[in-house]
């Protein structure tokens, strides 16, 4: 769901589509339901934390000084 959300956000930023906007709304709502959050920003943070906690410690990327991880973003 996080990947789909990111893909749709990028697509909307590049060129607006009413179909993609509806799908983005659906994905946002699904993320909120899955995490129990009322705002999509909170749902994303919760989902990220869940994924981070599920990853073995050796597989975690250390944050860089700029707050980003060294993991590539798959979109």
From TrEMBL:
Q: What InterPro entries does the record point to?
A: DUF5133
- List, in alphabetical order, the Gene Ontology terms for molecular function in this entry: ATP binding
Record keywords: ATP-binding, Nucleotide-binding
Q: Which domain of life is it from?
A: Bacteria
Identify this protein by name: Methionine ABC transporter ATP-binding protein
Per the UniProt record, the lineage of the source organism begins with: Bacteria, Bacillati, Actinomycetota, Actinomycetes, Kitasatosporales
């Amino acid at each position: 769901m996080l990947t789909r959300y990111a893909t749709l956000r990028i697509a909307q930023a590049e060129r607006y589509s009413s179909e993609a906007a509806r799908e983005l709304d659906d994905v946002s709502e699904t993320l909120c339901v899955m995490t129990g959050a009322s705002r999509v920003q909170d749902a994303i943070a919760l989902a990220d934390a869940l994924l981070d906690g599920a990853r073995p410690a050796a597989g975690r990327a250390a944050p860089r000084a700029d707050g980003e991880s060294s993991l590539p973003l798959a979109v």
